[in-house]
Design brief:
Layout: H1 5-10, H2 15-42, H3 47-58, H4 71-90, H5 94-99, H6 101-125, H7 130-138, H8 145-154, H9 161-190, H10 195-227, H11 235-253, H12 258-269, H13 275-299, H14 303-306, H15 309-329, H16 340-346, H17 352-363, H18 369-400, H19 408-421
Length: about 425
């Protein structure tokens, strides 16, 4: 047996043994996620990849230091994902989604529909049951906003027309992905796939977000004006997180996913004058909880279950569908004058929402360890291949585009003005 048996048993013991195990697990998570995250960055990859790999190393497949099913670790992981979606909501400007226009919306909807449909029917053709196939397809929907934004920024294309379309589309398909997550979670719990059920769950999620943003936008400003007067250190940030937890709880009561409520809370607070302070406070607390989520996701990977013919075949199908669906989505807005292939490549990486789908499916019994590993493999590969592929495509675009053309010309002119102003 490769897993230290005593450590795994300690997770279920009561009293001091269980607390000691949790402390050991947290120590290992904090050190390993930071170390592996830094290694990933040095290789030009997002830190989240390092955190996932750290979780795999710490999990039962290798060292056995972290048991993702431990109730304390699982609870901290859930808090981590709620804070993560709250942070994403805080960074999301609803008005900016409107400004990028129809091109971003078209890319987003195509980038959800094609991978979802192809992933569902492709894995069902391999012999998967309907619910596991639906989870696999749903995990392909959402582009990682953080990964795309970081890569575009590093290659100098964040402010180009292509960059704006990618960011707008990534945010929109994250929102669609959250709605789909609520639908899939409801289906997994109920075990039935029907059009009326999907419509009801989707309607609840959409109505909840609309009402939360509409009512919250009126309630939040006076509340936080009063909260700002609290002199206690960190008081404003804690009230913001309490607000996120409240909406997450209300979303659960409404029959939707808790992360829908957390995301809606972020949208509500985005425009507050105190939003900058709230983001800083949330990020600070997130540095504790969010790595636990990513490490727990990695720790749940069973390498022995992954490395079998069926799991690798499903993983290969998901990777192929995941890459092709997003690249083709870049060509959906036929009227867009920018580089469509660059847009499509930038939409390829999956990340937080894909991992949330995988974790939800495993926790509810919708998928087994092999399928969980196949989805993890898809997330890792699509995220690994994007930075170098995007850099190469950007070099081609830079080489053939004249400075005065829209997009690159705007960027170069802006950089020149900044240089002169210094």
């Amino acid at each position: 047996m490769t897993v230290p048996h005593a450590l795994m048993l300690a997770a279920s013991d009561g009293g001091e043994a269980s607390i000691a195990h949790v402390l050991l697990a947290l120590m290992a998570i904090f050190v390993a996620t930071k170390a592996f995250g830094e290694i990933a960055r040095r290789f030009g990859q997002p830190a989240v990849l390092g955190e996932l790999i750290a979780g795999v190393v710490l999990g039962g497949s290798v060292l056995g230091l972290v048991d993702a099913s431990n109730t304390v670790i699982a609870a901290m992981s859930e808090i981590g994902v709620i804070l993560l979606l709250f942070e994403i909501g805080l960074e999301t400007d609803v008005r900016s989604l409107i400004k990028v226009g129809g091109a971003a919306t078209m890319v987003a909807f195509a980038g959800v529909a094609m991978p979802l449909g192809a992933g569902f029917f492709g894995t069902e053709a391999l012999g998967l049951a309907r619910v596991p196939a639906l989870i696999c397809g749903a995990a392909l929907c959402a582009t990682s906003v953080g990964i795309s934004a970081r890569v575009l920024s590093e290659i100098g294309m964040l402010e180009t027309s292509e960059g704006r379309v990618v960011l707008g589309a990534a945010v929109i398909d994250d929102i669609i992905g959250l709605v789909i997550l609520a639908v899939v979670a409801g289906i997994v719990e109920g075990g039935a796939v029907s059009v009326p059920r999907i419509a009801r769950i989707s309607g609840v999620a959409v109505v909840f977000v609309v009402l939360a943003v509409g009512i919250g936008s009126r309630v939040a400003p006076p509340v936080f004006r009063v909260a700002e007067k609290i002199r206690a250190s960190g008081g404003l940030g804690l009230i913001a997180i309490a607000f996120a937890f409240l909406l997450a709880w209300l979303a659960h009561l409404a029959g939707s996913a808790m992360i829908i409520g957390a995301f809606a809370a972020g949208l509500v607070l985005h425009d507050l004058p105190q939003a900058g302070d709230l983001r800083e406070s949330t990020t600070r607390i997130g540095h504790f909880f969010v790595p636990i989520f990513f490490a727990s996701v990695g720790a749940a990977v069973d390498l022995r279950a992954l490395f079998n013919g069926d799991a690798l075949l499903v993983g290969a199908v998901l990777i192929g569908v995941g890459v092709a669906g997003k690249v083709l989505a870049g060509y959906a807005p036929w009227w867009f004058k920018g580089d469509k292939l660059l847009v499509g490549v930038a939409m390829v990486p999956r990340g937080e929402v894909g991992l949330i789908f995988a974790q939800m499916g495993l926790a509810t019994g919708g998928i087994d360890a092999g399928l969980f590993g196949a989805i993890m493999l898809m997330v890792l590969v699509t995220t690994f291949v994007t930075p170098p592929a995007l850099s190469r495509r950007a070099a081609v675009v830079h080489g053939r585009r004249k400075p005065e053309q829209p997009g690159i010309g705007d960027l170069v002119a802006g950089q020149s003005r900044q240089t002169k102003s210094r």
